[in-house]
Amino acid sequence: MTDAIYDAGYAAPSRFYADARERLGMTPSAWRDGGRGETIRFVVTQSALGTLLVAATAKGICRLSFDEDEAALRLRFPDATIIPDDGEIADWVAGAVEAVEKPLAMRDLPLDVAGTAFQEAVWRELRRIPPGETRSYSQIAAAVGRPGAVRAAGSANGANRVAVLIPCHRVVRSNGSLGGYAYGLPIKEELLRREGAGGIATRKPAS
Fold this sequence. Notes:
The protein is of the alpha/beta class. The chain has helices spanning 2-7, 13-18, 20-24, 28-32, 70-76, 90-101, 117-127, 137-143, 150-158, 185-195; strands at residues 39-47, 50-56, 61-66, 81-84, 135-136, 171-172. The longest helix is centred in the middle third of the chain and has 12 residues, at 90-101. It is globular and about 45 Å long. The two termini are 25 Å apart.
């Protein structure tokens, strides 16, 4: 993790964590403490792929998931103040639904997520995968400068808390098969189909 911090351009690990709020919103410590000190608004809505939970702090979306509800959100953020949205995040909710249903026209919505330096490097790389393309876990590991950390890249991929907007569904096995997905392979396959990932074959990143 320390090497990944240096590779990201930070002079020391302390600088990475001190800069976390400016970069991401919620600090890593707030994530570890179950969202302590944060107010999270949420909406449970319907999409073409089923029920969608959208939750956000004042700075951005902190949870986007399929088939979850308020109870699941409270399990993830037991120490946050969690309230039903009264319209304040309506535009972000609409954008999240659009990202699911019309991924080629996906807006750049603000996110409020935090992880280790390695996780964040993986998440940034996921957001660089264009719609209609996929990457393998080994390609993601290599892209973040850790070609031997394929398993860790898979774990970071699985730790993604914001489905679709951080498109972990665009990562597949090296043989082109779907691999796993937290919300089930039918949803992963449909997301890829909507993006035009014909054949769901991996494609190499541009050099």
